[in-house]
Amino acid sequence: MNDAAISLNAPALFDLSGRVALVTGAGSGIGQRIAMGLAQCGADVALVDRRTDDGLANTAAFIAQTGRRSLQIAADVTSGEALEEAVTRTEAELGPLRMAVNAAGIANAERCEDMPEDQYQTLMDINMKGVWLSCKAEARAMLSHGKGGSIVNIASMSGVIVNRGLNQVHYNASKAGVIHMSKSMAMEWVDRGIRVNSISPGYTATPMNTRPEMVHQTREFESQTPMQRMASVDEMVGPAVFLLSDASSYCTGVDLLVDGGFCCW
Ligand code: NAP
Q1: In the predicted model, what is the mean pLDDT of the chain?
Q2: What pLDDT does 2 receive?
Q3: Which residues form a coiled coil (predicted)?
């Protein structure tokens, strides 16, 4: 075989140097850790969250140590206008947006027959409409600069299975919606340079499910999972880097289950 004819450089496939990303939910949990990981791979990252504590500042401080740039943007993903502004600011201060991770989301529980309409609607507005609005703003920028882009939406294995013992019809439906919305957007943009994929985490140790009312269920989650443990947030970083980078250049419309084998049983 003629070596000169082989242009393969596998490590470079994961290199995000010189690219700009936007991450929603970057002030906590999965979104925060993915934002940190993208910076370690060379990206400059716009950090979006509604939190007013020091979550975004902590993410930004970590990124500064990697030598990359970041931007802290307080915004609510239920506002299309706020997201358009966030993208505009990102491109003005960091450069053309090439990558996005939409991780902002909430979870709560109530029996279906007792759930108030506003509890259902608030969750749907954040988890599903918020992902649509985020993708819309991100893709408009990616389509207009013409450099292409890769979007990863954080869904959940709850969009594929029903979590035993958790009364959360609205959450499960929202995540099934995110998976299919991602596939639908992937097909709308497939001939215009934008890839859209989703990651469906299994039980992951974040504030979302280590909150006080969930603690008693942690052991249950672990024993139901074939790997017998919850994921750490670090374990969501590799899948996100893969789906955002050139390593996955032929993947679009994929839902990547990262669930310790949960959906096999
Ligand atoms: P998390 O630690 O609570 O992080 C979510 C972040 O999103 C929080 O900072 C949250 O702020 C923010 N956020 C919520 N609503 C927002 C809004 N309307 N606008 C802007 N920011 C908003 O939770 P996580 O576990 O990392 O969850 C991240 C994503 O992974 C979610 O989509 C979740 O459904 C998904 N997921 C999590 C698990 C798991 O086991 N943890 C499993 C599967 C999927 P607040 O704190 O103010 O709400």
Answers
A1: 96
A2: 64
A3: none
Evaluate: CB of 128 within 6 angstroms of ligand 1. no
194 Cα–ligand 1 center, Å: 24
* CATH (residue range 16-258): 3.40.50.720
Per the CB < 8 A criterion, the answer to whether 3 and 14 are in contact is no
CA of 66 to the centre of ligand 1 (A): 24
Please answer whether residues 20 and 96 qualify as being in contact, where contact means their C-beta atoms are separated by less than 8 angstroms.
yes
Phi, psi of 153 (to 5 degrees): -100, 135
Amino acid occupying residue 180: H
Q: In this predicted model, what pLDDT tens digit does every residue of 98-154 receive, in sequence order?
A: 999 999 999 999 999 999 999 999 999 999 999 999 999 999 999 999 999 999 999
Length of the chain: 265
Best mutation site among 83, 106, 122, 221 for ligand 1 pocket (most ligand atoms within 8 Å of CB)? 106
Q: What residue ranges of the chain have pLDDT lower than 50?
A: none
Q: Is 53 in the pocket of ligand 1 (CB under 6 A)?
A: no
Q: Where are the domains of the chain?
A: 16-258
> If you compute the radius of gyration of the chain from its CA atoms, what whole number of angstroms results?
18
Q: 86 and 63 in contact (C-beta within 8 Å)?
A: no
Atom nearest to 233 CA in ligand 1: 26
Known active-site residue 171: yes
Compute CA 233 distance to the chain's CA centroid, rounded to the nearest angstrom. 12
Q: What is the pTM of this model?
A: 0.97
